[in-house]
Design brief:
homodimer; 13 helices; 7 strands; elongated; DNA-binding
Chain lengths: 273, 273
DNA sequence: TGTGGAATGGAATTAATATTTCATAGCCTG
DNA sequence: CAGGCTATGAAATATTAATTCCATTCCACA
């Protein structure tokens, strides 16, 4: 038997990465698929894996042989071993975690993961369906959607902008650095709509812009963190999202999920699905 | 299909325990074996399992049919699912949340919440502590941190920029619309560091910039989604983050958590806490 | 102790899955 | 641009594994 033949997933992975540049196109395709979806390899059949990776079954066998295995079956067994062992190591990890054997950086990561998870749970539990429907209604009617947010909330609108573009929904991101925002907003009419996002301490610009647009008769959908938020006052529909925080930085996960929901739901609403 | 047919390992286990006393001798034997060695059932073949449990293959089939499955194969798939889903908890949570009678928009929201939760769980499980430590080490040493990302990944760097500013860590967001990026990057030296983020399909600019900076000797910390990502090649340290997607839009939650961890951990590292 | 019915073992059958083969397409090199 | 080589796709084949079937055994009850 070939002594270089990898017996465990880690060394197999390294072997693949090492040979990466020397792989033919289709083999590289299945290699990437394998490392990205190891569970699929462990359980699937040659045919099913090949289909979902978009190659022929024979390519899978060639991939295995390329690495020195004598066929798909023996390659697959490495992926299966990995799952068996993971059961153990995962439990070990948890044990270690309880024992306090974790690094400081890991603790920070876990903190962010936990606050994000908590926020997501909260938004899913607390969000009112009727509110969501009304907001989508407003956005679906709009000719152009104006996106207003600063500072912490800005990443949300920038991802919304990306999504709206993909969904072919016309939008304007109010973010000009050159002080031209007032002009841009002056184009907005009651036939458009605004998504304004701001959390305490409220960026004054966002609040001002939302009020300005609202006074122009443009309907505002706001996402904020409290009923007392100044944003709530100028909004036609507003959502209260409570984000947990970690190390002084609030998670954006829940707001992000809500924002993306608004984008996708608006698109679906328009397409009449 | 039989409605009592157990879909997951837990209910299958309960079903077996419940029927325990009514089982014929050989069936009982294989039942006990199955609950004691679930991994064997998941991976073995009917023949191999039968042999190590000391029964005939046909007994295995009878056991499966006794429980209402139509054959060994469908029984086995329950045992396989169990291994895939070390991430059971989030599904339970969501199942509990869905009380039925949900609107379409609510379904979209739940989809985003679910994919975000799944991504977070995956990153927490899969991320290697050593890798994290090394990345933080690199960033902590840097005089200026350059942030490079486009399109989908851009919101991540924009939140990182916000956080780094708050933490008083010097950074430069490479995002100039005026085509001045090359000049900005030419200021970077090996004493600085880069955080580059890109997911498939990789924005070519991000990849090019990362390579350019790496060639200048600036250490690159990359966040990407596959070992085959072109970003991985120019990176000194790189993270693989698998984000689940919903309606064609990938969650950013896991990447966001990791990015914030890098920011905060770097600050703590510098402050010597 | 004989008889009927369920349980079991083992081999035959059928289904599935992996592997091989071969024809063709793409690509580099002279 | 030709010739040879490698890579790829598709289908045929071989292998392996699941399922079925039938003969036999075991056990309860008369």
């Amino acid at each position: 038997m070939n002594p270089r033949l990898p017996q465990d997933y880690e060394s197999l992975r390294n072997l693949v990465l090492e040979k990466r540049s020397a792989l033919p196109k289709r083999i590289a395709q299945i290699a990437a698929y394998a490392l990205d979806n190891p569970d699929e390899i462990a359980f699937g059949t040659a045919a099913s894996i090949a289909a979902s990776a978009g190659v022929q079954p024979s390519t899978l066998i060639r991939f295995a042989q390329f690495l020195g295995f004598d066929g798909f079956t023996s390659l697959q067994s490495v992926f299966r071993e990995r799952l068996r062992e993971r059961t153990v190591s995962y439990e070990d990890r948890l044990k270690a975690l309880r024992g306090g054997g974790v690094t400081q950086n890991r603790t920070i990561l876990d903190g962010f993961v936990e606050s994000a998870t908590r926020s997501l749970e909260a938004v899913s539990r607390a969000l009112d369906d009727g509110l969501l429907d009304r907001a989508v209604e407003v956005l679906a009617r709009a000719e152009t959607i104006y996106l207003v947010a600063r500072r912490r909330s800005y990443p949300i609108t920038s991802y919304m902008a990306y999504a709206l573009g993909k969904l072919k929904i016309r939008y304007t991101l109010v973010e000009s650095a050159a002080g031209l925002d007032p002009e841009i907003m002056s184009f907005a009419t009651p036939k458009d709509a605004v998504v304004a996002i701001s959390f305490s301490p409220y960026a004054s610009q966002t609040v001002d812009y939302a009020r300005l647009l609202s006074d122009q008769g443009v309907p505002v959908v706001a996402i904020t963190d409290s009923a007392f938020s100044p944003l709530a006052q100028s909004a036609k529909v507003w959502f209260e999202v409570a984000e947990a925080d970690c190390a002084g930085f609030r998670s954006l996960s829940a707001t992000m999920a809500l924002a993306m929901t608004l984008a996708v739901a608006t698109a679906e609403r328009r397409n009449g699905t």
